[in-house]
Amino acid sequence: MEQVTIGELGSILPELILLTGGLLILILDMVQSHGTADSGISGRGFMLIAVLFLAVGSVAVILQFDAEQQLALSMIMVDKFSAFLKVVIYVGMTLVAIAGGGYMNRRMVGHGEFWMLFMFVTIAMSFAVGAADLLMIFLTIEFLSITSYILVGFLRTDVRSTEAGVKYFLYGSVASSVMLFGMSLLYGASGSLNLAEIAAAFAASPERSLVIVPATLMMLVGLGFKTSLAPFFQWTPDTYEGAPTPVTAYLSTASKAVGFAVMARVLVVGLGAFQASWVPILAGLSMLTMFAGNLMALRQPNVKRMLAYSSVAQAGYILLGLVAVVDSSHGNFASLTNNGLNGVLIYLFAYLFTNIGAFMVIMLVEEATGSSDISAFEGLSQRAPGMAWGMFIFLLSLTGIPLTGGFMGKFYVFGATVQHQYYTLAVIAAINAGIAAFYYLNVVRAMFFTEAEQDEDGKALPLSGQGFAPATQLIVLVCVAVTLWLGVYPMSLINWASDASQNLLTIVF
Amino acid sequence: MSFALPNLLSILIFLPVLGAVAVYFIPDAGQKKLVALAVTLLTFLLSLLLLTGWQEGAAGMQFVENYVRVPALDMRYHLGVDGISLFLVLLTTLLMPIVIHFSNRFVDESIGAYLALMLVLEAAVIGCFVALDMVLFFGFFEITLIPMYFLIGQWGGDNRQYAARKFFLYTFAGSAFMLVGIVGVFAQTGTFNVLEAARIGIDPSMQTVLFLLFAIGFAVKVPLFPFHTWLPDAHVQAPTAGSIILAGVLLKLGTYGYVRFALPLFPEASINWGPLIAVLAVIGILYGALVALVQKDIKSLVAYSSVAHLGFVMLGVFAVNEQGVSGAVLQMVNHGLSTGALFLMVGLLYERRHTRMLDQFGGLWKSIPIFCGFFLVVAMSSAGLPGLNGFVGEFTILLGMWLRQPVFTVLGAVGIILAAWYLLTAFRKMAQGPITRPENEAANLPDMSLDEIGMVLPLVLLFFIIGLFPNLFFNKINPSVEAMLQEMDAGRNAVVISADDYHTDALTFHSALDDVQAQE
């Protein structure tokens, strides 16, 4: 075993910062719980600590972006690809913390625990995107899952939250064990846990590659569960609907991004030589996922549940990008500059702001009306015009209308798909984009074309039970701004994403 | 030559956008209306600079603006206008002040949002007609959907939500295919610039797939039979101004798309699949006309007549020769003027009587003669009476199709007869005979006021100008069309040397091979 030096810890600085934050919250919580209930640090205080450490962590990640690529602690790759995803995760978690923190603090008991777990979830994700070793992948995914189970079921008094947690846990534990079995097959055949060494081992003795297909399938069960691909998505609607909305927001964005990042790293770095085996699997899953998500979303009367199914469908689109890493005409990896991975990253980044924004609007409506059914959105344009327009932009972005970030994501993913000659897939994706417009538009219809409840003077009742939380409104505004900015001027994101994706793909060229 | 404004096309796009923002934030409703009208009028006047600065006889793009946007993929902010798009831009800028004025008179509900959406729509439509980058075009194309969706859904008739949703979904679904097609063209040629892509050419084996992807997207917009079912719903439910813009310019995005994208990018596939599209166009002409014949609601009659008229345009486009395509381009403008005017007249009548049912009228000639006079001229223009604009376009199109495939011409001509029939029937039911209802008496029904005449008159004058002096227009349209067709031919000849099977139109332009040699 190699000696871990202090210097090497520098490369996991962002995670160490988060760990410090998490432990600080834990200690403060333990110290004060001996005192009286109303003294000591409130939920808001913990939230501020979390946001502060997330912000410092983000700075550390940005510093990492220009640093030399290196393998830290022989298990974690610190490269541009992981740095890109860490930014996605940290930014996403910060947005969720600021926007949803107040909502959580008002509802839960045990503030310290929540914010500690919130930090730990972030650490798990942060390690997972860099994990270059099967064991590390399993540990981080498992860490992420277990902390997420707790967060999903955190509102103990809310039956649906508890139910959501249990469902998530039951599905998740089965999926993890199947994934672990897949990993054991790879380890058995190659004799190594390190992805690069696995690739080398299979290259040296091709006769062992019989295990590739079953192992890939099994690992995709676990990762497909995290990214809610069909047919492993049944937990998604129940969990998304039942979980506290801020938790749903990160599950559908940051946590999903992690699933895709790990999938990309395993497939490209570990099993890059066997693209002929996994491309058809991914293509099939993608088609299935798009149709399953979109068709189920059509009939949902609850907006949160509809967005859950829509996020299943979005996962299908994102998966297209991973398929299009390989060119179908010559069956080999596509060129470095025009590959689908680039699109995956752009999509994930744009989707982050869009979806968090959408869930935050839902959260506000839920708080003000007590429901997230489509009927709660009726007349929203008269009752809360700002929120209605914000939601409108997010829905446009999810539909993929130009001038929004969602369009850029779809454009790049579809683009790579067409460019690498998966015409059937592209046409199916186009059909699905059409289906999806239908249910997104339904929300727009409710918000703008139905009359709001009126008071005696015939004026629409404003929607502000306790008034919208200013922090949440601010984050919605930020999300709108970034969504539009990515649509109008996507240059910097595109360059950045292609840097990151090429960084991962250089290994197969 | 007069003074030239730099970035004129960008100004035409962004002036209405600025106007929309201003209109939305100005507090006073009267001022909103005034500003909206002023902005559209100013846009119209500025668009006339396109005419004064026009280089006569030039085939290529003029007023070009070209800025790099995304260098990695060569996506550009690339605008330009040629003979094909010139009159469509002018049509848009001309119709806009008219519909704004109409709306100012008759719309009161949330007028600020309404006018702002109208202005955004104008910007997006102009953007579509001048965009030369396919992604930019796609962007404008999609953005036209949003204001129109709201205009129908918020200010429309009783069944507006259904109609608005149907309109959006049909077009969006179609354009999703087009997006795949656009990327496919990029994959084949390495550029999003439509002119450049056409010059580079696409492998014939790929042309069919990509052509069909584009064709579906545009067919929904045109709309071509059997993709037309959204149109009657949208038209009948839309507010009058929405109908005018929908029929006047939005439908042209489809036919324009065929001319600008489908023909030059996929010459081989356009020839091969042309007959199929021509068959659909003929079905549309006959079906639209026959359905229009039995409509009781004038607005839906005009809507179905649009299906028929756009069938003519498609027939011209897929004649793929100079007469056909030039005629189609002019007929796009004609249809915008005639059908726009028809919807305007119907709207004026509706505002007076709050009904559009033909059996509610009768004898109007006695009570509102000015209105009926204008209505007759407009109807005749739509029916293609010689001396008016419709005739020129339809005649040229049929001539073009005759050179390609006479049988379609014969069937198309039947459509002209049917058009005269349903329009005259409608006119007879409305205007002639005795007055049967007290509401239709002169005392209860005011005739057209001066400002209403002012809205219709420019359109009527143009009917005559186009009808009597078509060469004013063809002189600008023809060079661009000719150049495009030559390039198409060159593209086909480069692939298949013995491409003489379609040189039936040798009357008008020489073999492209000669041309290529001459250039060398």
Brief overview:
The complex is a heterodimer of chains A (509) and B (520). Chain A is built from 21 helices and four strands.
Overview of this protein structure:
- The complex is a heterodimer of chains A (509) and B (520).
- Chain A contains 21 helices and 4 strands.
- Chain A is mainly alpha-helical.
- In chain A, the strands form 2 sheets. Chain A has a two-stranded antiparallel sheet with strand order 1-2.
- In chain A, helix 9 (212-226) runs antiparallel to helix 12 (254-270) and helix 13 packs antiparallel against helix 14 (303-323).
- Chain A starts with 5 loop residues before the first helix and ends with a helix.
- The model of chain A has no long low-confidence stretch (mean pLDDT 88).
- Chain B is mostly helical.
- Chain B contains 21 helices and 2 strands.
- In chain B, a hairpin with a 4-residue loop joins strand 1 (62-70) and strand 2 (75-81).
- The longest helix of chain B is centred in the middle third of the chain and has 32 residues, at 322-353.
Would you spell out the secondary-structure blueprint of this structure?
The complex is a heterodimer of chains A (509) and B (520).
Chain A: H1 6-9, H2 13-32, H3 43-65, E1 70-72, E2 76-78, H4 80-107, H5 111-128, H6 134-152, H7 159-190, H8 195-204, H9 212-226, H10 235-242, H11 245-252, H12 254-270, H13 275-297, H14 303-323, E3 326-327, E4 332-333, H15 340-369, H16 380-383, H17 385-399, H18 405-419, H19 423-449, H20 470-488, H21 491-505
Antiparallel strand pairs in A: 1-2, 3-4
Helix pairs in contact in A: 2-3, 2-5, 3-4, 3-5, 4-5, 4-11, 4-12, 4-15, 4-20, 4-21, 5-6, 6-7, 7-8, 7-9, 7-10, 8-12, 9-12, 10-11, 10-14, 11-12, 11-15, 12-15, 13-14, 13-19, 14-15, 14-18, 14-19, 15-17, 15-18, 15-20, 15-21, 17-19, 17-20, 18-20
Chain B: H1 8-25, H2 29-52, E1 62-70, E2 75-81, H3 83-106, H4 111-130, H5 134-143, H6 145-155, H7 160-189, H8 194-200, H9 204-221, H10 230-237, H11 240-265, H12 267-293, H13 298-317, H14 322-353, H15 364-367, H16 369-383, H17 389-404, H18 406-431, H19 450-468, H20 471-495, H21 512-519
Helix pairs in contact in B: 1-2, 1-4, 2-3, 2-4, 3-4, 3-11, 3-14, 3-20, 4-5, 4-6, 4-11, 5-7, 6-7, 7-9, 7-10, 8-11, 9-11, 9-12, 10-13, 11-13, 11-14, 12-13, 12-18, 13-14, 13-17, 13-18, 14-16, 14-17, 14-19, 14-20, 16-18, 17-18, 17-19, 20-21
